[in-house]
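Help wanted!
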Amino acid sequence: MSVVITARSRAQTSRRTFLRGLGAGAGLVPLLHGQRGDAAAAPVKRLFTFFWGNGIPQASFWPNASATLELSPVLKPLEAVKDDTTVLGAVDLECLLASGAQLYNGHGAGPAVLTGKKVIGYDRGNDGAGKAGGDSVDQFIGAELAKRHNLPAGCLVTGVRGGSGAVGAISYRGNGSTGITPEKDPVRLFNTLFGGRKLPEGTIDRLREKRKSILDVVGRQTEAFGARLAPEDKAAVQAHLESIRDIERQLKATPAASCATPAAPPAGLTSNDRTPDLYKVQADLLLAAMRCDFTRVITYQFSDGYGGLTFSWLGAEFTGSESIPGDNITSKDHHGLSHHQGYGPAQMSRFVRINTWFYEQVAYLAQKMKATPDGAGNMLDSSLIVVANHAGDNHVVVGLPFVLIGKAGGAVKPGRLVRVGSFAKRADKYWGGSTGSAGVPNGRLLLSLCHSMDVMVPEFGDSGSAGPIAELRG
Amino acid sequence: MPLRRLTQDELKNSYDDLFGAGAVTLDDLPEDTQGSYGFATSPKLSPVEVSKLGTAAEKAVGRAFATAVSLPEVPACDVKAAGEAACAREILGAFGLRTFRRPLADSELGAYTGLLTTLRTGPAALEYKDALGGALEALLQSPPFLYHWELGPAAAKRDGVLVRLTPYEVASRLSFLLWSGPPDRALLDKARAGGLATPAELEVEARRLLKDRRFERSLASFHRQWLHLDGLEEVSKDGKLFPTFTAALAKDMASETELFTRRVLADDGRLEALLTAGYSFVNAGLAKIYGAPATTGAELRRTELPRRTGVFTLTGFLSRHSSSGGTAPVKRGEVVLKSLLCRTVPPPPPDVNNAPPPPDLKKQTREQFEQHSRDPICSACHKQMDALGFAFEIYDPIGADRPSERGRPVDATGELPLDDRPSRFDGAPDLLRKIAASADARACYTRQWARYLFGRGEVTDEAQALHEAMQLFATKGGDVRELLVALVKTRAFSCRTPSPGEVLP
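Answered by r_m:
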């Protein structure tokens, strides 16, 4: 007897279907922005957040304290954008500790890092159990800017790893939400962003009108459905309804002049070993999306709460499990290497290499943004790249290594190591790690990000009354 | 009981039934999260997911309408003879019944036919066929399709502290339990005729559904979630240690477990077979892992595997619950303990540093977890989890036999309380045979189906009904189909617990 069945299939088949659908002009309707303008004459503020987890090797990460920024080994790749770089030492996930987390427990920190809010249902026994207490800062700013400037998309969440849930996600929409799964497939990302541009002018208009009418009815039906429910259920349907309203708003966004459509990306880049190629393709697409002003807020996930990438492209010592002279561990994956207490120099150097590789990727986009004119200056002058992590060294949820690149139109004065909290008083560059909270709550940084994007809210997450981090302005 | 949205599988199956197989892929639909007890729950819809649902509807309708209007179980309508308005009402009524799993209220039918008119004559100015497609898309994005609580025109009817389901709601509950998808025409007809009111009537329909191939969808869905297998396709392994492990092999592993579950339970039907069968469905790649070299080709074929005992000893479970370079005995043990025995594991105390110790190349995996048994703070909970996990140490991180590690034989012995008596075991096959023969396993498996069915934990007034279902399950030789029939006949099945804050008449 022989039977062939279809597995719970993933990207492969759907990619083909998408491409076919696009060619036929049916079955796939991407963002219907049509022709938004190429980088506007006036500079535009944008927020691009990179995330990876598992913390940093502190000794190779923190720069020496000095008047101008000295790049540490891990940060060396940022040389070309050094004058645009700000290293912030450091923020703590106080909101996660307030949720009942252990000092050593950053994996399920997803709902805390960018929300600054206590995690709902945080459960030490189940990393993935927590839910967000509100919008993450990228979603919050993205929605606000989209509304303000009539953009087709609020916050775009993309990456190579990550999923929904407290371990998988970094970007959250709403109180009690479980997080947004990043779009990992560049072909689908391309089709969503630029696919609509291939449709004839009249077709785009008709599809937009069709979608508007459908959502109008669906919205009214959803409202009626929710009205009959008990309060708790009503909240779920209300969230659904708000999402519908969001899409309706996006459909009403005004198309502008023209912007260049990039080349369609190749298929087949989503395997682990192709990650470096995949990233470059995605970064180029996202840069084009920024140039076309489809969205002003983008979040890019390199990892989930445990990592998830195997760095085969960095060399044989990142894949094998057999003993290497000087090693006392077998684990060579990102997470295994990050737990480096008791490890030898051979493991440390690999953990350093992994983090350096991440910064090489950050530098790739940063340099491209710097080379892109925006108003009188370049895109880095007007925008801000934020490099986020959920842990400091050795998995502690304090001493988080945030790096900012860009000036956000003058909101950040770069080229410095900015030391805040008791970090400012430390003579050495070592964090120690297990001594508990000592930086500033991450909510204060998130509030600074809001203000740097001209979203002038009084508080964000657990920022409290202390306000934004004034030192970032210089 | 809180409002539940259709899971990714249920949406996919609904699309398959409404449009024919392959209308959309899983990737086109919003993803689930893992809820309590490990079963999938569907989170609140974000804008990304709402637009995904819109695109999925456009895709399915576009495909179905590519040549002519053609929908399974929806009669064709001749526009030239009957006119657009009449055809619209007829098709939207018929498709609406299938989509909402109950007849549309007049006001609803009015809203969707009104939409068709808007699309036809408003700024979109669509052709009749496209406008009809747009109205179908709207149905597919509306809450009565997306949510489980079919709020029809009728007001809630109390039954003690519970609310009685309407006949259409009973039909849906039956089909989503046994087919993981919507009712078919025959079941909806039964609902309309009031033929789902008594346990005997429900049994007749349940047995009809169990004989249908769609039952296998439900088996696949339940067991994938029960085994915590989600994400198996994305598992990657240390390339040097396991050079044969590829993304394609991970997919084959998922297909293998799914096919094994479908065949064992749809053909044999016994829980014991699921937990002890000495065969699986393997192709050349999987055969290499099992050391069954006679199998060739890419197709999965039934193959005898003398050293394996059921679904917990297949490559899928063993690979999913391992890290990239080593086994994960705590995780393997935890899933067995929670899923198969329904025992709870509390989280570690707050002051514990749960960062793993530096691994030691001289020690076997089991020896590296010594701290758990030495430290009384850990041992209280880890004793059970770890012991069960160690039974699986005879299988490596991709599921191959591993009789020895670091040059020494693997110690896979342990002890666990089973049916209130201590039970000693040596290796996973021995452990699984003992669990399979226990009343504990049957009781837990019964509770798991109830949790899956109701989307919540057990409530006290169900205890008796569940106990009876479990007894019947035992007397019918542990046949899973008989268990499901027994569950369908309980009072709880035809009722729902009111939602918190719900105002009842």
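OP: Thanks! One thing I noticed: Chain B has 23 helices and eleven strands.
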